[in-house]
Write a structure and sequence with these properties.
Elements: H1 2-17, E1 25-26, E2 32-38, H2 46-53, H3 56-59, E3 62-68, H4 72-80, E4 86-89, H5 92-99, E5 106-113, E6 118-122, E7 138-140, H6 147-158, E8 168-170, H7 178-184, E9 189-193, H8 196-203, E10 207-211, H9 212-216, E11 222-227, H10 228-233, H11 235-254, H12 257-264, H13 273-286, H14 297-309, H15 319-322, H16 326-333
Parallel strand pairs: 2-3, 2-4, 7-8, 7-9
Antiparallel strand pairs: 1-2, 4-11, 5-11, 6-9, 6-10
Helix pairs in contact: 1-4, 2-11, 2-12, 8-13, 11-16, 12-13
């Protein structure tokens, strides 16, 4: 609960100094401009970049102004203060805002990723790895209170491992410094996102041995969301946005990872295409990319169970309160 309060404190503090104008308008060519704030830049969000690069948004008459806002608190601040029309961020943030009594609720309307995006990486090869091998090991985890950490600990508990007593667990390293800390420290295991995990393998600094996403099951890990008022006032535009995302999800599902990597490579200029392809393939194999934008009730309940297990669920919020599936269902039925 401390992390919930800290999250909301940061959000509302940032709102006080955040001065931006809403960006929903039409340009001279009759395209509707939408401002989208993504929580980070990640291969995990490949369908979003595909929708831009393959022209799926353009086909719908939309022009996307994509900005990376680096963190759940900043992303939610941007959305709440009208600095963006739509945010791509973890669903847990909508629950945190709701718990503080938001007058204009943040509604999840199109899911992009349906599983955790982190992988278990070991410093040494583990060809016959079993989860119980982690007992007594030095484990470098993710930041406490974040979804990667909550999912990671949830998986370990499901495997019969108490993260606090069965591991030498470290959670005091900033997100950006975790890869270097693992490489230079005496940690035996680490929880990493792509493409860092693939880079480690290529350079011989680590070995991917398990997927937290596969182990945890489906969860609304990253979802497009907007204020309820925006959805009500921009119904047609939201449908067009969701239709473009659905086209991209279907294209990624049916397309070879190498081709996907080539399409999204402009968003990762400092990463080799073969590494991007490896990352895409790993996410496809884990079933991490949602193949349609519907956030169903089972996934929502799984999210709440993970948050509750971590002591971070501020209140029990029904699926229908913060999730709109009608938009996605209409698009899929077309």
């Amino acid at each position: 609960m401390k992390n919930v309060r800290r999250f909301m404190s940061i959000v509302f503090s940032l709102i006080l100094i955040f001065v931006m104008s809403a960006c929903s308008n039409s340009d001279s060519s009759n395209k509707t401009s939408l401002s989208v704030a993504e929580v980070t830049r990640s291969v995990f969000y490949a369908p979003q970049y595909v929708a831009i690069e393959k022209g799926f948004f353009e086909e719908e008459g939309l022009e996307i102004d994509l900005k990376t806002t680096w963190g759940g608190d900043k992303t939610m601040t941007t959305l709440v203060s009208d600095g963006a029309d739509i945010a791509l961020v973890g669903s847990e943030t909508s629950i945190y805002v709701h718990a503080r009594g938001a007058n204009d609720p943040i509604i999840n309307f199109a899911q992009l990723t349906q599983k955790d995006g982190t992988f278990l990486v070991s410093k040494e090869p583990k060809p016959n790895f079993k989860w119980e091998d982690l007992r007594g090991s030095k484990f470098l985890g993710q930041r406490k209170g974040g979804m990667p950490q909550m999912v990671g600990e949830y998986v370990l508990k499901q495997k019969g491992i108490d993260p606090q007593s069965d591991l030498e667990l470290s959670q005091n390293v900033d997100f950006a410094n975790i890869p270097n800390a693992f490489q230079t420290g005496d940690y035996e295991y680490v929880q990493l996102f792509e493409p860092t995990a693939s880079v480690f393998e290529k350079e011989g600094n680590g070995h991917v041995i398990a997927s937290f996403g596969e182990a945890s099951g489906k969860v609304p890990y990253t979802v497009f969301m907007a204020k309820q008022s925006f959805l009500e006032d921009n119904k047609e535009t939201t449908e067009k946005f969701t239709r473009a995302i659905y086209k991209a999800q279907q294209w990624v599902e049916k397309t070879d990872a190498t081709e996907v990597a080539e399409v999204i490579s402009p968003y990762f200029e400092d990463t080799d295409v073969d590494i991007i392809a490896s990352s895409v393939e790993r996410y496809k194999s884990a079933g991490a990319f949602a193949t349609d934008p519907i956030l169903d009730e089972e996934e929502w309940n799984n999210l709440k169970a993970i948050m509750d297990e971590a002591g971070e669920l501020p209140e029990d919020v029904d699926h229908g309160t913060l999730v709109n599936t009608q938009i996605a269902e209409k698009i899929i039925s077309e």
